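Summary for the funding panel

The consortium committed to producing paired sequence-structure records for every protein in the target list. Below we show the first two records in order, beginning with the earlier of the two.
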Amino acid sequence: MDAIKAIEKRKSIRSYVSKPVETDKINTLARAANSAPKSGGFHISVVTNTSILLDIDEKALEAMKNSGNDFLMQRADTPGYRPIYGAPALFVISAEKGPYAQATASCSATAVTIAATALGLGSCYMISPILALTADSGLPAKIGVPEGYTPVCAVALGYTESEEAFATPHEVSDNINYCE
């Protein structure tokens, strides 16, 4: 799939099948993440270990319940809700502290979501796993976040059950203007 088609078809997926993502696809996604525009250092932790994924999921859910944020607490109280949606792979993107950390990490995450779509994988850009990594001070080291780096965002990855998981191209809407 070409890049424009992948961008147009990309959609946030919130339900995954348990099939693991192949190592060659994980490696392709890691290269895409590392090729994104950046300003400052960043690090990608690729998590496929089932017990670590479950730990992140459970700690994120608990952190959401205790966050004091009405939206997060309501979401966490939804029956059956799981913060990483059962994804078999999670890319956690960390950056050096600084004014461009969020932009650098988000560019990397965007590259992963587009590449995942091109590879026939579902993906979801998310912040909720960061709550787990903040709540448990040992968890960042467990997934290899370097000293001096802060987890900023994550991308859940995996296979989905249907093609409906991918978006149909959007028409140009009224939120774009051209200054010619």
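The next record, for a separate protein in the list, is shown here:
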Amino acid sequence: MNFIIHKTGMQNAPKANEFSRKFTVKSRIVLGIENEKLTYSVTDVEPYERDIPAEDVDYGFSDTSPTVFFADIEGKLAGRIKVLEWWNQLAYIDDIVVNPEFRGAGIGRALLEHGIQWARENNFPGVMLETQDDNVRACTLYQKYGFVLSGFDRNVYKAIHPHKNETALYWYLLF
């Protein structure tokens, strides 16, 4: 499957509702600590459907707008990555999504590469991002690209989902 990745501005970005973040959760990350380093293993869970609401909101603390790259396949929107300067001077991947019908074609990998390259070209000291403990596929991708799991927060989603046991995972790639 051939796809094209191109840069666009937020003013031209399609609304977030043009992307589907639905996926089936079959496993979760289980955290541990060894020699003062965060470790993890993967455990299988009873499968369930997960849908992460999409927003086109800039949460960065920078005066500059996010940079957005789209992946298109034959005129159809296949994926998007949104990167920006974060408050700690790192590049932050604010959003990366591949529509379900295009998953498994290497689009997420290619979008991630574009985000990392953008950070290098703009002289950031590294890249950070956040995902959840039930998005094992994304965690595996980040680890393959050299990201290190360096933090977590078990309470960050409690106001949104008070009864869910969801953990935010923070990944870093320092250059």
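Regarding this second record: The radius of gyration is 16 Å. The longest helix spans residues 107-121.
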